[in-house]
Amino acid sequence: MDIMLIQQILIATLKTGTPLLLIALGELISEKSGVLNLGQEGMMLMGAMAGFAGAYYTGNLFFGVSLAILSGMMMAFIFGSLSLMLNTNQVATGLALTIFGTGLSAFLGTSLVGTTIDGFKELPIPVLSDIPLLGPLLFNQDIFIYLSFALVGVCWWVVNKTTLGLTLRAVGENPHSANALGINVLKVRLLATLFGGAMAGLAGSYMSLVYTPMWMENMTAGRGWIALALVVFASWRIGYLILGAYLFGFTSILHLLMQGFGFDISPNLLAMTPYVATIIVMVLISSNALKQKLATPASLGKPFDPKLH
């Protein structure tokens, strides 16, 4: 295996892992506040459809991205209104949101199915992009990948080094104590949920404006569900989330590599690789119940009514 092939594999891994990293980062922040949103797949699909439609009809890619983020936040607001304000079951509400987003994106995007556009291109950084191996890998990428690097750093700093991060973690661990200290628990949770929706919309726009610059129904192919598993895999730690996203990104292209190396296996079976990997990882993680219990935000998925406390 020569150096050029290794470089191409790493670049492909980076591209396939980026949408997972974006959506999982938003879900991690949401879960840190105690909100379990299973509607990621639906929000991501709405972001992909809205982003593509906005860019296609206006000719402005950045308008498409903005519309995708807004659509993700609107979906998240629906979830937050139901689960936080009306205290509906978070699991059932999230599942309903995924079904709703899947159907609505397919309905609204019917006339655009199969349509293509010129999406975002690579933006090489002068001098740095000429560095052997690392240059093309890290400094000759599209704007979404650069943004994902920045968002990871900002989120890590906010969660671990700021008062806002401490507040977020307090609400996720013990909302009753946080409420007693004067923290508006529902406001913090709603803002975290909206951030998760924005990141899901952003990840969706990456799919339709960069990864595959076109619109197809269900084009996210279960990445929203994989992102949920990624958060658990990372034990709600942003550092581990990066590793997990790119690891799952690699498994997404593994079937192409195996075909390229001449393995005589059905392509349909090979395409199952990332989802099989997700199941295996979840089983392995679940086997260590104590570690998982210590890592999970204590109030994750539990409703909170300030009127009762």
In short:
It is a multi-pass membrane protein. The protein is an all-alpha fold.
Description:
It is found in: Cell inner membrane. This is ABC transporter permease. InterPro entries: ABC_transp_permease. Keywords: Cell membrane, Membrane, Transmembrane, Transmembrane helix. With 309 residues, the chain is mostly helical. It has a single domain, classed as Orthogonal Bundle (ABC transporter involved in vitamin B12 uptake, BtuC). Strands 1-2 form a two-stranded antiparallel ribbon. The longest helix is centred in the N-terminal third of the chain and has 30 residues. It starts with a helix and ends in a 14-residue tail after the last helix. The mean pLDDT is 89.
Describe the secondary-structure layout.
Layout: H1 3-32, H2 40-58, H3 61-85, H4 90-108, E1 123-124, H5 134-138, E2 140-141, H6 143-161, H7 163-173, H8 175-180, H9 185-211, H10 223-233, H11 238-260, H12 267-270, H13 273-286, H14 289-295
Antiparallel strand pairs: 1-2
Radius of gyration: 20 Å
Judged by helices, strands and strand pairing, the structural class is mainly alpha
Amino-to-carboxy terminus distance: 62 Å
Q: Using DSSP, what is the number of strands?
A: 2
Question: Percent helix among the residues?
Answer: over 70%
Residue stretches low in confidence (pLDDT < 50, at least 5 long) are none
CATH architecture descriptor: Orthogonal Bundle
Number of domains: 1
Strand order in space, largest sheet: 1-2
Round the mean pLDDT to the nearest integer and report it. Answer: 89
How would a crystallographer describe the biggest sheet?
2 strands, antiparallel
List the secondary-structure elements in sequence, H or E: HHHHEHEHHHHHHHHH
Strand content: under 5%
